[in-house]
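Recall from the previous lesson that a structure prediction takes nothing but the amino acid sequence as input. Here we apply that procedure to N,N-dimethylformamidase beta subunit-like C-terminal domain-containing protein from Paramoeba aestuarina. The sequence below is the only information supplied.
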Amino acid sequence: DEDIDNGFRPPGLFRLSETNVDNVLYLQDFGETYDSGSATHNLVMYKHQKSGAIVFGAGTCQWSWGLDPMRQFGAVPHAHNFLNPRLGTDLSGTSEEVEQATANILADMRVFPLSLSPHLSLPSPSKDTIPPVSFPLPPSLSSPPLLSPSSPFFFMKFFSLDRGGGCLAALEVSINGSHFYPARRYKKDTDSEIFGDEHSDNPCSPTWVIEVPVTFLNENLSNSMKFSPFVADNSVKLQLKEGENQSICVTVRGVDDSGNIEETNYGYCKHTLLLESQQNARKYHFLSLE
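The prediction returns the following tokens.
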């Protein structure tokens, strides 16, 4: 199962794994047309902020294979029927990692086993209730990035920190109060270079630096700035009017590995990006991010 930014992702959804699979039957529409393609499967999780309920998606029907050796394509057939003649026992057995991960997830849901296999550890539920915090990294004032039709790209950067002693799991970005979309993490070596983060090579890092790509469209199209959340490159699309300074309201939503979400207000401009118009009205300096 893919975690696709289609406008219907629940707040705080974060990925626990990533597996690329080629030459699979890939859905081309809303349920009728399939063709060969490549898919990226993700284990995902989120915590419902009002009820505290945890929702977990394995991202694959094969998750159960790690819990029970009796499955399809087994080496030793045990059952033959017209539906599935290849049911059998996987001689490699179950996966201790999948079993322990399942126990850990259920513990966070406050569900505990009556008995536990000897090779597994009894997990404790997470006690982290502190959400992450995020703030912008300002551009260089000596040479601010220039946004123009001939140079249409620049990046806004944000730094986020989990204050509860866990890991940052996801960051989401909203422009001008629109749809939140998952942001990409910036280069790990830059994390270390800027912040001296010894955890930057660890997938469970308490700090992230993300970059939000911005694309110049056409200053004559509109006097407003437009955000397109469903583009493949997750780029903010700007339409700029000649001769006017422009600003964008940016909200960053941080999610930690316990599902805690940084508090945000959809009607509040958390960070403001100012684009200063140049004299020829076709170029804009990325002046500040506050």
